[in-house]
Write a structure and sequence with these properties.
The chain is of the alpha/beta class. The protein has 9 helices and 12 strands. The chain has 2 domains: 4-107 and 257-286, Leucine Dehydrogenase, chain A, domain 1 (Rossmann fold, 3-Layer(aba) Sandwich), CATH 3.40.50; 110-254, 3-Layer(aba) Sandwich (Rossmann fold), CATH 3.40.50. Helices cover 35% and strands 19% of the residues.
Length: 292
Amino acid sequence: MSALCLGLLGFPLGHSLSPRLHTAALSAMGLEGEYRLYPVPPLPEGETAWRALFERLRAGDLHGLNVTIPHKQTVMKELDFCEDEARIIGAVNTLGVDDSGRVWGANTDSPGFLRDLYAQLGDVLPLQGGRALVLGAGGAARAVVYALIRAEWEVWVSARRGEQAQTLAESLRTFLPYAPLTALEGVPPREALPPRLNLLVNATPLGMSPHPDTLPWNEALPIPEGTAVYDLVYNPRETRLLAFARACGAPAAGGLGMLVEQAALALERWSGQMVPRSVMWQVVAEDSNPQT
């Protein structure tokens, strides 16, 4: 296999851990390649750089890109082929190119989330048929909600603006008409919380550095008994939500494992080989301030 030219498309990218994750994995796999950052501002400002990257993909100069905020949804309009799962989710985090020069889009956030969720909290969660409240309505929330529904969970999704949660729900029901999905506005009061809640997921950026003091939950409302908490935010590693959950006696986990899983799944798509997660976890362990 020729050297792989890979990278991350997003803005801002700052102190990204992705190059180190992929470089370490490529080395361990005995593959030549590079992984670079491509900070492209939101459209229309980043239009020229955006077009140039897609031209490089189609020409074979680039073999794959990870995609992060703010481009997970907007890249879909440029794809030659979008995998069904990504199309249903409505967000793409992995781009590749086939032998015909067609750019394809996939979503590894969804399976990456579910794998890490059960790896970290599987001993306290039902394998299927659970009840989850997901905070957020962006691309990450879409991936989480889809993953849970496919695992036969009943899901409530809440956003600060109720219409955003409603839009997410309606979008998924276009493809999954019988999905047990309810849209809410804001953090619901105690009496409006889903009964027998198994899982609370934060899929918003609240609590992320450089604003680690923000809390996506109502501090006056304890985490319900029997509810585990998963925070997609991993910078800082101990978010305010995780600390709050543990103070309430709730099992809790951050999103570093999802970062590793989605990266490994993307690299497997580009390389056609199994990726050693342990190498990526070693990079994570050595970094005290991880970022996408």
